[in-house]
Amino acid sequence: MNRNEKTTEIAELQGKFDRSSSAVFLSFQGMSVATVTKLRDEFRKSGVEYKVVKNTLVKQALKDKSYGKALDKALTGMTGIAWSYEDPSAAAKVVTSFKDNEKLKVKAGVIDGNVLDAKAVEDSLAKMPGKNELRAMLLATLQAPAQQLLALLQAPAANLVFALDAKRRKDGGELDETSARGPRTHARASPQSRFKKFSN
Question: Which class in CATH covers the domain with range 3-127?
């Protein structure tokens, strides 16, 4: 690879990291061609871009990123990178579905500029709600009382994801009152309603 080709490759790698919502770094040493082909197919079906890379070029592509140096330990040996663009958990979910294959190992992950170790990729990133799960939870949330929905809409986007996940875990019950941040408000009962309550 000559200098111009290296410059082009580095620019392409930078573009992938800039556009992606997350990236998972993998070691595939010892995997059969058939298994690697199946892995690539699963990535493609999930909207994930996968590429075998040269570690030195990745280091060059990430040299201006705040998290670049933190990935130096992961950029040794054979390295494949799976970039997720729409669903941050997509690549991690595909990888965990191949957990029976001991040859496929997670080296590290990146999401929102934060570096994750292998355990965090498998135990946290892979278990984040996917795009379809979030849609279903949002529809369920729309059926919640208006006051709870308003609290969710006023929360930061990250809080909304965790709030929706909390609602899903509650198995269809009302939204956990601690899920969305912000003060809890109560409508003040009218004198008539208070009278009716004590007269029953």
Answer: alpha beta
